[in-house]
Fold these 2 entries.
Entry 1:
Amino acid sequence: MRTEALIRALVADNKQPVVPISRKLLIAVLSGMVFSVGLFAITLHVRADIGQAIRTVRFDFKLIATLTLAVTAAVGLPRSARPQDGAASAWTLAAAPLLVAVAVAVDLLMGPHEWLRRLVGQNALHCLLLIPMLSLAPAMALLLALRSGAPLNPKAAGARAGLLASGLGATLYALTCPDDSPLFIATWYTIAAGAVTALCAYIGRYALRW
Amino acid sequence: MDQASDEARWTTMLELALDGDASAYQSLLQRLAAALRTALRSRARRAGLDDEDVVQEVLLALHMKRSTWVRGTPVAPWVAAIARNKIVDAHRRRGSRPEVSIENIVETLQADDDGDTLGEAHDLERLLAKLPAKQRLIVSEISLQGYTALETARRLNMSEVAVRVALHRSLKRLSAALRGRP
């Protein structure tokens, strides 16, 4: 085929308006979250003592930590969907783990007693199941949107989508979760978010090649 | 033409193209094809690849991934990044291990965009032959015969939308078929 002929076909295919990849990702994360919030509304409920909880540092800290994860992952996501400069400042992703680590240290310093009970909490299994469940829709929507991108590093792009989705899923879950101990979050939230992220990285490695 | 104004011109042309300007898009793709041809020739030959195959593969990828270009930014580094990915793919399909530095591609892309405008290759044609008959016919009406989508629609007694959808699916299939395996 002559290259001129290929160019004619490409020009003929250029009739639809081109939606920038950053906007596709935004649409994906919003529609994924609409689905997850709906799922939350149908199957779960905000904890009964939310009015008091919201005035405690420990509860607010949970939301700050999970939202920090979501925001730091989201900031570099459009960049990781593009073919150049794929190494989008991964160090900002350390913010959420760092916050949790500091909170755990402060918590242990203030009262080292009963740390095991606070670690195990009341709902470890609940947490391990529900965070992935609430992350699933945004994760899949983001991976789908990333497929129209051109990530330099498909695995890293998938992982970043997983971090964003699990940050959002964990934020929703935090509203129902009765455990506010930093040790609980450091353990179970991290395992749940890590599993979602690993899955997305694995999918990304194969599905996001272009 | 110096490099800075060349670069600014490519940026303007791609912006126009994304807004649906067909002649800007056509002229940009022709210039990019010429620049890629010059940049890739020695690289491809050394590796035993047909350079025009690689040029066509890169053009198709540029088209499919044009939503990843950021308006107002230089075009050459974006093209070079996509070209690099495609060259690595082309090597992989042939089982060789490439050394491709992106900087070199950018330099050659900027240095010359008045190279040959004619080229012919065979990879895409082989893949085209594997498309369903209807899709193959539509692609050939538009690309080889040079009909517009509307003319093709009339000739084949289809709606223009159906022709556009079939064309888009065909291009998607072609680019999927060219994708390297892990």
Entry 2:
Amino acid sequence: MMMKRCTFLLSLLLAAGAWAADAAAPAVPATLDNRVQDAKSDVIKLNRDLLVLEEELLFPANTQVALFVSMDVGKLFELDSVQIKLDDKVVASYLYTPLEVQALHRGGVQRVYLGNLKTGTHELVAFFTGKGPHDRDYKRGATVKFEKDTEAKYIELRIQDSMGKLQPEFDVKLWK
Amino acid sequence: MRVSSHRRFTLRGLAAAVLAACALSATAAATDVPNHEIKDPHYGDVLFQFFQDHYFSAVTGLMVSQQFGRVEHHADEAEVLRGGMLLSYGLQREAGEIFAKLIERGAEPKVRDRAWFFLAKIRYQRGTLAEAEAALAQVGDQLPPPLQEDRALLQANLLMARADYASAAGVLSAVGGQAGSSRNSGTRYARFNLGVALMKTGRADDAARGVAVLDELGRAPAEDEEFRSLRDRANVALGFGALSNGDPKSARTYLERVRLKSLQANKALLGFGWAAVALKEPQQALVPWLELAQRDVGDSAALEAQIAVPYAYAELGAYQQALAGYNAAIAAFARESTDLDESMAAIRSGTMVEALFERNPGAEMGWFWRLGQLPALPHAGHLSQLLAQHEFQEAFKNYRDLRYLTTNLEEWRAKLVVFDDMLATRRKAFAERLPQVRERAGASGLGALRQRRDALAAEIARGAAAADGVAFADAKQLDLLARIASAQAIVAGNDPGLAPARERVRLAAGALTWQLAQGQTERAWRAQKDLQDIDDQIAQAHRRDAELAQAQRDEPARFERFGRRIAALAPLLDVMIPRVAALTKEQQFALQDIAVAELTRQKERLAVYSTQARFAVAQLYDHANAKADAKQESEHVAARP
């Protein structure tokens, strides 16, 4: 009786173990699965078309301005928040979650603001708050004057480490 | 019994693809220090979304940026990333097309190698193994290090799929490295699979090597839960392998290493008991089995313990306890069977899927997501085995994705209505306000301004021709000119008494004429410059007016185009929403079918155990009857004269 049990148990165990093999085993997906994948694909494409429409309608290229935040290394600065003023008007205030800070550390670039500006000269002022070296509260600003023409304008606010000064640095890059 | 790398391929492969896309070295990735260069900020934004597990936003955002041509500097990397994301959503056809195009257009070797690798993976998942092997053979030496490991695991899986365990073991040996080199997660899985592959080659020396590999893994110190879990699996595999080879002593040694609170614990406790029984030590079997019998009978090992305990009692000769145990097990099985019926009814009514969805929410579609929380339902434990099933996880992921898509589509439908309203408002404002603006601009006198400018130009020309500077005299000089003319009129004549005054007036007039003549050139230049400024302003005003006129002609056409696009997209949404809703319902039924099938299997298992218990009870009664008969017989014999 014991051996019979043992065999039965082994077959159960192998069946349980075979879960792994089943998972890896190549199999032609079921019809429903295919139809679900087709629907997902169609919705993704539809989203693309809707997002393109939304952007062209709300932020046409001739007036569009997009502001980005990036962090290079960022060991000397622990970002908490950023506030951005365009022509003395606050257009973005953003409080970062640890996950977002981590995404910036890993090389992500956040589009923090998308809006419209008329052609001409404009001024941007950004304030970064967080923890600086030695865990001290840190608030710094960066400012830039720029010309808006009839092309979309992309501006990147960069947080970098200055290893020479052992201080974080904040600057602004105007993308061509 | 080999560990699947299917899910790991998806997760780790894509992560590796993205890391490679960012040109992160393995060391850099380990220390989380980026050393990449973002050449298009929108590509960085895609990564920002991706790194936060916002995969739907990442893939759609990437496609939008590709359409606008603003990720040109990362064109190939973006395609690899898009292909990887679509592949992970299960969109194999699209992903395959992307990778095939990358290869066709002769992308650089490091991109081409990744494309061939992912194509091989897609073909493997679709079951076209020969094509998968052919694609894998095309991968050169430019694959980033994290993918090299996955490539070897894929190759080993392909070899094992055609039962070539010896070759698979050869490939895995190269990845798994030497004993004690199992610090890296991928290497540990490779070593586990290596052990299993060696045991399956059919050669005694390989089997011994396989046992040694798994034994080394089973004894290794593990610093994280993933490794501890793998170590438990290695020990359980070794233990049951030893049991089936008739080596219960070794089996006990291996099974003792499994943690009491782990996914493998129940199997290990059961096996440990059987090893003790095989060693003729049933009392030792009772220790793990009694513990196991207390656990949730939704687990097959715990279920078997219900009858294993009375079996051990019977082996020990404690027949009364054995009988009571079997009867208790039969009663427990009957209760469990009723509970399973209730669970199946809950599943069929749709309650289970909804409860699971509520307990396992998520912001976006995503493949890293895994169903983990049991629903708040009676007998939810029945579903724990279900949750461990790849098939159920994948089906639930589809269900969850479909629910997300429904919300997404509904949001777009509401937005499109807003866009349409906005467009109508703009169209109206434009039609009403632009003519007024142009009229005002005309009324404010572009024509009059031009007339005034022409008069001024004529005056400047006359002044320049006269060359006496009078035309460019300032207000003070004009006043002086008037006063001198007045004085000249007063002192006119030959009155000798006024001769000195006449002389002073003459001198003053001469001085003023000199001053005017001296300033003539500069003032004429200034006047010309002012005239040029006026000309520029007039030209600018003309341009603005022309732009407004152009806008008056173009904007209605632009609004018309937007209107047509909205009108074209709205019906697509109207078709897509019910299509997704119908698929959601179908997917829910499919999920319910999988769940019911699993619970039916559990019921069948219960029936088997129940029959065994009844059979054992009958045997015990037979044994007792035989014993009573024997006793009666012996008493009868003893009573004979």
